[in-house]
Amino acid sequence: MIPGDVAAVALTPPGAGPRHGVLVTADQVLLGPLDDLVEGVRRVEAASSPRWVWWSADEAATPLVAAGVAPARAWDVAEAHRLLHGGWHVTPGLAWAAAHGLAAHDVAAPPTGDLFELVSDRAVADPASAVLPDGHLRGDHAEWLRDPGHLEAWARAAVETAHLQHDAAGRTSTRLVGTVHAESAAALLCVELLRDGLPLDRARTEELVADAAGPRPTTDAEEVAARRGRDALVLRHAPGREATDLRNPAQVKELLASVGVDVPNTRKWVLEPYRDVNPLVAALLDWRRDERIATTYGYRWLDAHVGADDRLRGRWTACDGAAGRMTAENGLHNLPAALRPGVAAHPGFALVRADLGQIEPRVLAVVSADASFAAATRADDLYAPVAQRLGVERPVAKVAVLAAMYGQRSGAAGEALKGLERAYPVAMAFLDRAYDAGRRGEPIRTWGGRLVPTGRFLAASPPGTDPQLDAARGRFARNAIIQGAAAELFKAWAATVRATTRDLGAQVVLCLHDELLLHAPLEHAEEVAARVDRALDDAARRWAQGAPVRFVSDTSVIARWSDAKD
DNA sequence: CGGTGAACGTA
DNA sequence: CGTACGTTCACCGA
Questions:
Q1: Whole-number distance in Å between A130 CA and B8 C1'
Q2: What is the CB neighbour count within 10 angstroms for residue A466?
């Protein structure tokens, strides 16, 4: 049975002729060619805005998004599984098994093409059923779904899984159902981010690349010559060693030794103190900076990932394999600051940039329920009241708070850290508990309910056998409860922004952990910015569930990403 | 050919 | 001041 506020969508796999799809609601089943399905979803969305259930947004929503349909609410079975059970790897079979309490190791594997696998008794399964006689989902669905007649059963299996996940989520944590909703919206947003891309000023971007890599080469020979030219600027400081391969760290180390710079490795922060000692070091560091742009963010990158519409595109994922932050490919998440002036609104549009201020300590105030620390979040600058309370300068208070959340290895914070323990014992005890759970190899749950396994190095060394690895697990856990909760708030905010600015023609074009970038029509940009701030208030209130913690956003309407940077 | 580590960009 | 990610390069071993 399909509940009245739920609808399901499933599609035949791409790449095997014309695609078909099915739409299943409480009172109708629409089975037909993809175009008909898209129109059906558009109609149902407009009429009742149900919660769309799919095995994953990537599979099911991509054709909808391509056609401009913007579902408001979803239950993404794959993302729900990741939240409930931890880890990143998920298939329909694994999600089905976990939801039904079946053992993961019995999940039917996809066919390998091996002649001998046909001896499995699973081959006798009802050809029309998505479920095998042993209760597991069939493993050959990629092939099986080429027959559109199988789609309805596949969609109903997704709804059954979602239903069981919903029950399990409600039992596990009071906030987990809401987290699944936000996570599902984020996964849908990821599909839209890939479709829309990040708007660039191509000419300006090419200029910035040229500053580092030289003019665009037209032949392979020119490219080689440009590379030699860059190398020569370093090697001219090392007469007799011009054959050194600057891309080989061992050779670079030897080269540096030959001019009296003796270093354990050639990393930037190791070499930086020697920048003025020898011109070779300065030349090498500058070479590294330019080489990064020339190789990773050079002309090849531009040609491969920037479309004819001057949009930089890459795939996005709603959560990483650790605490659950979003990830992006093709440089969208690690674009060098030097290239940011190239990210620019297109004619008739503006960028709306919003970044959350001091999100991690504010998140700590929520998840630890420390009333004193929460009081400090009333300030625009949270470190000011903390410094006052501790009787130290602001920079000392800041280092102490960050050390408490992440570090406590090199005890620069010292006295101030002890002050934190006295002033905010609830928050500090919360961090200590996460650290201890990690040391013991126990999984933790984030505020929103995501299960985060800490046993990543468990096979190499069980808890209690290697103090260094125990400490690494502890730091990971302590970081994950903060980073993971921050990611949850961020996604709730991003999903709210997506929903509340769409009617103004705005697009979310970049999500960067604590920063949102939107592309909006010029005439609506100020209103979009206002709605972004309102969305933060609404999302934070829902996410924090009444905790008296304030979140702040620095929001501005700009032409280029590099504008109005603080 | 695939896997690994160094290096470095972002938060 | 720790954690995480993606990308490129050279090297290693099959």
A1: 47
A2: 14
pLDDT over threshold 80, residue A171? yes
CA dihedral A317, A76, A536, A499 (to 10 degrees): 100
Provide the CA A331 to C1' C3 distance, Å, integer. 20
Q: Are A107 and A84 in contact (CB under 8 A)?
A: no
Across all residues in chain A, what is the average pLDDT?
A: 91
CB A273 within 8 Å of CB A309: no
Q: Which of A117, A81, A125 is nearest to A99 (CA)?
A: A81
Find, among A276, A287, A280, the residue nearest to A257 by Cα: A280
The per-residue pLDDT for range A402-431, each reduced to its tens digit, is 989 987 655 556 678 888 999 999 999 999
Residue nearest to nucleotide B10 (CA to C1'): A334
Q: Which nucleotide is nearest to A483 (CA to C1')?
A: C3
Query: What percentage of chain A reaches a pLDDT higher than 70?
Result: 95
- CA distance readout (Å), A333 to A12, A113, A190, A329, A473: 32, 38, 13, 7, 26
Element (H, E) at A252: helix A249-258
Distance A32 CA to C5 C1' (A): 40
For the four alpha carbons of A75, A81, A86 and A88, in that order, the dihedral sign comes to negative
Q: What three-state secondary structure class fits A520?
A: strand
Q: What is the pTM of this model?
A: 0.94
Angle between helices A359-368 and A467-501 (to 10 degrees): 100
Q: Is the pLDDT of residue A120 over 70?
A: no
The kind and range of the H/E element at A350 are strand A349-357
Q: Which residue's C-alpha is at the least distance from the C1' of C5?
A: A327
pLDDT digit string (tens) for A490-505?
999 999 999 999 999 9
- Considering all nucleic acid strands, name the nucleotide whose C1' atom is nearest to the C-alpha of residue A265: B6
| pLDDT recorded at residue A566 | 45
